[in-house]
What we know:
The chain is an alpha+beta fold. The chain folds into 2 domains: 39 residues; 123 residues, PCu(A)C copper chaperone (Immunoglobulin-like, Sandwich). 18% of the residues lie in helices and 42% in strands. Strand 10 and strand 11 form a beta hairpin. The chain is globular.
Amino acid sequence: MHIPHSVPARIFGRASPLFRSLEERLGIAVFILALLFAGAHAALAHEFKVGDLEIGHPWSRAAPAGASVAGGYLTVTNHGAAPDRLVSVSSGISAKAELHEMAVKDGVMTMRSLEGGLEVPAGGKVELKPGSYHLMFIGLKQLPKEGEEFSATLTFEKAGPVEVEFAVEAMGAGGGMKMENGHGTDGDHVQ
Length: 191
C-alpha cells in the first residue's frame, strides 16, 4: 500500500503539535545527554600540569572520626627530556605533609620518609599508590570526607610548585595489620 506523501506531512508536519512535542522531547533528551557527558568528562579529567609534568587524579580516602593522618595518591608523568623530582608537599588540611615509601623487607613492612624527594624520570611515570610511594598528611586539621576535595601544593625541583585538588573517595577496606612504625597495610597510618 502506498501512502501519499501529503498524509505523513499532515500528521507529522512541522506545524503538527505531535511533531513539535516529539521534537521538544528529543531536544531535551539530547541536551541532558550532553550535560551528562560533559560532567563525566570533567570528573574523569582530573589532571593538573606544571612545566613538562602532568599530575593525574590526585585522591585520598575518607578519614574516620579521630584520625590524625590521611594518605594521598596520584600519578606524575614527565613528558620532558630531563628528569625532575617531587621535593615537597603542603596542604591546609594538615599541620605537615611528607612523601613516604612503603617497602617489605624480610617479610616486614616498613615505612620511611623520602627526605631527598622522588625522581620522575624523563619520559617516565611515577605512581603514588597504597602500598608504595604515597603522600602522608600528618596532624589533620579537618577530616577528608567522601565526595569532597581538598587542595595541596606539590613542589618539583625544576618545574616548581603546582596546586592540585585531591578527590576524597570512600574509606575502602584497609588492613589492620600493624607494622613496626605504626602504618597500616594500605599505606595509611594505623590509628
